[in-house]
Amino acid sequence: MQITNVKIIVTSPGRNYVLVKIETDEPDLYGWGDATLNGRELAVASALEKHIGPLLIGRDPDRIEDIWQYLFRGTYWRGGPVLMTALAGVDLALWDIKGKRAGLPLYSLLGGKTREGALAYTHCGGQDFQEVEEHVRAAQEKGFKVIRVQVAIPGNVGTYGVGGAQEAAAATWGEGGALPQVERWEPGAYLRTVPRLLEHLRSRLGEEIELLHDVHERLNPIQAARLAREVEPFHLFFLEDPLRPEHKESFRLIRQHTTTPIAMGELFHSRWEALPLITEQLIDFIRCDLGHIGGLTEARKIAAIAESYQVQTAWHGPGDIAPITHAANVHLDTSITNFGVQEMVFFPEITQEVITGGPVFKDGYLWVTDKPGLGTDVDEVAAARYPYQRAYLPTVRRADGSVHDW
Ligand code: GCO
Ligand code: MG
Predict the structure, then answer these.
(1) DSSP-assigned letters across all residues of 194-241
(2) Is the pTM of the predicted complex or chain greater than 0.90?
(3) Considering only the top CATH level, what class is 3-104?
(4) Whose CA is nearest to atom 1 of ligand 1?
(5) What does the alpha-carbon distance between residue 174 and residue 313 come to, in Å, rounded to a whole number?
(6) pLDDT at residue number 121
(7) How many whole angstroms separate alpha carbon 334 and alpha carbon 355?
(8) Are strands 395-397 and 403-404 parallel, antiparallel or unpaired?
(9) How far is 217 from 240, CA to CA, in rounded Å?
(10) Which of 178, 18, 3, 22 lies closest to 82, judged by CA?
(11) Residue among 320, 347, 392, 406 to mutate when testing ligand 1 (max atoms within 8 A of CB)
(12) How much is the pLDDT for 157?
């Protein structure tokens, strides 16, 4: 069997997605991968079209590990968001082919089911505590048992995550998306507000519902340690991404001050970034993005390392990666033993018109179908109706005008 063609589609059904189709010399045997990198879509598409695609022609698509090693180690320039997203797109398409060829869903090829469904979490945001509470209650009605909560911070502008699930699935962030929207961020008000939000929610909703919160890498070490300690009485499922990915050593400071569970990893691009946090048991959940870390091949190795250190998985699952990667998430969740929780979004109809299949939500859990491969497909005619639209993530500035991490 040989790879005969690598096709890249950039489409915007609701928001931009970069999709990779790998075709083979066997009739009707092809795989689809997702290589979407929010705000840098064309850089990945170009890396795939101009540099990576030609290297794949004539190779045996069954040899996923060898192709992975060849593209990662064999090409000298390695790593980083653009190349690892491109590699993930290729990797997922190859796994899709392998599953289709075997006539088996991927979870089966990965070792078979260890659980029936994957515990899922959704996003709830609001302008004030009351609004967050209402959104949490509505999510509970839908069956969610784990919920991420974010609230607008007085004095800050455009607080991350406040739009809730809809924001995550929106076409562009802010108005129009021609240039990045600028948000304002000061940590003081944030640090005072978040513990009060959790106190409010616990007093109204009780202890049973699992709550988590995403810091989005905005704090420095001592602020992160303070927040993690102050929210300790409210028993978070986890506190997400408290520090920037460069500062792994600073996780020790958080650990020294609190038993709040810590999750980290959506900005990582290789297992070596995750390694010290796992082996030193500085985190409780590893939440890499399959779509930015080189795909299933790399993520299952990370999961295996994490298993030895009692670290669970919580793979990144936002709206800005395609349902194809969400499907890969759930195949992996369903087959590993140290799965923790799965972030998810409900994709709008327009996205599902182009990218079909994908995990299904029911009673708080995500399920993949028994279709061979990833269980997702792409309608290329529909994709052509939604051309790429330039869009950026917002940027953040402090009150004095200086740049801060978004
Ligand atoms: C999450 C993430 C996302 C990212 C987004 C950036 O926890 O889901 O923080 O919302 O901000 O993926 O493109
Ligand atoms: Mg996050």
Answers:
(1) HHHHHHHHHHHH-SSSEEEEE-TT-S-HHHHHHHHHHTGGG--SEEE-
(2) yes
(3) alpha beta
(4) 318
(5) 31
(6) 98
(7) 22
(8) antiparallel
(9) 8
(10) 18
(11) 320
(12) 85
Taking the C-alpha atoms of residue 375 and residue 356, their distance in angstroms, rounded to an integer, is 9
Instruction: List the shell of residues around ion ligand 2, using CB closer than 5 Å.
Output: 214
Consecutive 10-residue runs of the chain (406 residues): their mean pLDDT? 98 98 98 98 98 98 98 95 98 98 98 97 97 98 98 90 56 55 93 98 98 97 98 98 96 98 98 97 98 98 98 98 98 98 98 98 96 98 96 92 94
Report the distance separating Cα 65 and Cα 61, nearest Å. 10
For residue 40, how many C-alpha atoms fall within 13 Å in the half-sphere facing its CB?
13
Q: Is domain 109-373 annotated with CATH 3.30.70.20? A: no
Ligand 1, atom 6: nearest CA belongs to which residue? 38
Domain spans of the chain? 3-104, 109-373
Asked if residues 160 and 181 have their Cβ atoms less than 8 Å apart, the reply is no
Which residue minimizes the CA distance to atom 4 of ligand 1? 318
Residue 151: per-residue pLDDT: 97
User: Distance (Å, rounded) from C-alpha 185 to C-alpha 157?
Assistant: 7
Q: What Cα–Cα distance (Å) separates residue 345 from each residue in 267, 273, 366?
A: 19, 26, 11
Count of CB atoms situated within 10 Å of the CB of 350 = 15
Which residues line the pocket of ligand 1, CB cutoff 6 A? 38, 168, 214, 216, 266, 316, 318, 320, 343, 393
Q: What local confidence, expressed as pLDDT, does residue 351 receive?
A: 98
pLDDT of residue 163: 72
Q: Which residues contact 313 (CB under 8 A, 6 or more apart)?
A: 285, 286, 287, 303, 306, 332, 333, 336, 338, 339, 340
